[in-house]
Write a structure and sequence with these properties.
Layout: E1 4-14, E2 35-48, E3 51-52, E4 57-64, E5 73-80, H1 85-95, H2 102-107, E6 110-119, E7 121-124, E8 130-133, E9 137-140, E10 142-143, E11 153-155, E12 164-174, E13 181-194
Parallel strand pairs: 5-6
Antiparallel strand pairs: 1-2, 1-13, 2-3, 2-4, 4-5, 7-8, 8-9, 10-12, 11-12, 12-13
């Protein structure tokens, strides 16, 4: 099996009301009891076998019809148009679960793989990270305030792209893959994934 790893930072939004229950396998609080979301990732460093993934941005789009472990997810990916075909193919292999690691665990919950599209995907870092897919979605994370000027975080959730992530608001409309929604909830964190992640490591959250 292929060996891969990638690390960087992500920012996401979804149509759940504050606060999204998906990290604890709760029933979504978006309209019709669904969660529709998009997470934009910046890969600071990464590779699959000999394919370098460093510097690539991509969007991971989801539709959850119920709590996460119920399965039946719809998932699609948009890879930045500046990435090479080899990089796009490598990311599809990872995110579709074919290369093992945490996304292989996800694959058992996928109901429909919506495929991979190419477009301009951008991630902007800072105190208020933002993500965009040109002409389709654009949102900025607004952290919920914590004590002493800090930010509110979630730690050790059942599902998470990171062991600890900031939560807040991230308004913005998305129509990627026909999964139209108006974002409410947002989150952001640094992430590290690999094909060799321990079984008891926090699961990546879509």
């Amino acid at each position: 099996m292929s060996t891969w790893e990638m690390s960087g930072k992500y920012v996401g939004n979804c149509n759940c009301q504050l606060i999204c229950p998906c990290p604890v396998d709760g029933v979504p609080t978006g309209p019709n009891g669904e969660c529709r979301g998009v997470n934009v990732f910046h890969v600071a460093s990464g590779k699959l076998d000999d394919t370098d993934l460093s510097g690539v941005d991509f969007a991971f789009c989801n539709w959850f019809p119920s709590h996460l472990t119920a399965g039946g997810w719809k998932v699609g990916v948009v890879v930045d148009e500046g990435a090479s075909e080899a990089q796009a193919t490598a990311l599809e292999s990872i995110l579709h679960g074919e290369a093992g690691g945490p996304f292989a665990e996800f694959a058992a919950l996928y109901g429909e793989w919506l495929g991979v599209e190419r477009a301009s995907v951008t991630f902007s870092d800072g105190d208020t990270p933002s993500g965009a897919v040109a002409g389709r979605v654009n949102f900025t994370f607004e952290p919920l305030p914590g004590p002493d000027g800090g930010v509110t975080t979630v730690r050790n959730a059942m599902f998470g792209f990171a062991p600890e992530f900031q939560i807040g608001k991230a308004p913005g409309h998305s129509d990627l893959f026909g999964l139209d929604f108006d974002g409410v909830y947002g989150e952001t964190a640094d992430f590290t994934f690999s094909s060799e992640m321990a079984e008891n490591a926090p699961k990546a959250r879509a």
